[in-house]
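Researcher: Quick test of sequence recovery. Tokens follow.
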């Protein structure tokens, strides 16, 4: 089964987004490692693919040791997991590029990991401003990338961008299934 991972800073809206994507799809949500919230904690299962909820990065409240262990765990999963076909990096559409996001995205690029960007909380700006903010954000990252990755503008509150993200996931699954 193909896996699609979701990651971002704490409070970016990751849980809300995953819930929005799963709604009305009859997807079962299970916990791979019950009670261990520090681990890769949710797998949301469909017949052909999983959504994987990775722990947030950049928690100021965690101790250095815990944070380092988490980072190693996340890095190990992303680099070694053969079933992982795309990593979605979540960015709050209201924020300018932050160092921690850039570092993470640069690391994905250097490691040749396929990824896409999901801008969250578009309803907080309104869709028109959110589109402008997202494209400005992408422009600021352009010099770092040879090609721009796909990006999506979403709101979990207003169910914006849900079909686009799910269609993208389906298109990757179809591509892989058809060689
Ligand atoms: P996580 O820590 O990344 O999993 O973030 P959560 O999904 O728990 O969301 C963090 C906060 O942002 C919560 O208060 C959510 O209600 C809020 N939030 C998440 N997504 C949206 C959104 O699309 N629109 C609005 N207005 N608020 C959101």
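Model:
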């Amino acid at each position: 089964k193909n896996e699609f991972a979701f990651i971002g800073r704490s409070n970016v809206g990751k849980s809300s987004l995953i819930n929005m994507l799963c709604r009305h799809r009859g997807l079962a949500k299970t916990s791979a490692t019950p009670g261990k919230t520090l681990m890769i904690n949710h797998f949301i299962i469909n017949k052909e693919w999983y959504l994987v909820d990775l722990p947030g990065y950049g928690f100021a409240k965690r101790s250095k040791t815990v944070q380092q262990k988490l980072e190693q765990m996340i890095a190990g999963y992303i680099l070694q997991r053969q079933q992982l076909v795309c990593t979605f990096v979540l960015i709050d559409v209201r924020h300018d590029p932050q160092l921690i996001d850039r570092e993470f995205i640069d690391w994905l690029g250097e490691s040749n990991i396929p990824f896409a960007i999901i801008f969250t909380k578009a309803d907080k700006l309104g869709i028109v401003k959110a589109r402008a903010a997202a494209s400005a954000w992408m422009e600021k990252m352009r010099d770092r990338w040879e090609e721009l990755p796909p990006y999506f503008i979403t709101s979990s509150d207003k169910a914006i961008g849900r079909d686009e993200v799910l269609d993208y996931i389906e298109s990757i699954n179809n591509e892989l299934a058809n060689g």
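The pocket of guanosine-5'-diphosphate is lined by residues 8, 10-16, 56, 120-121, 123-124, 155-157 (CB under 6 Å).
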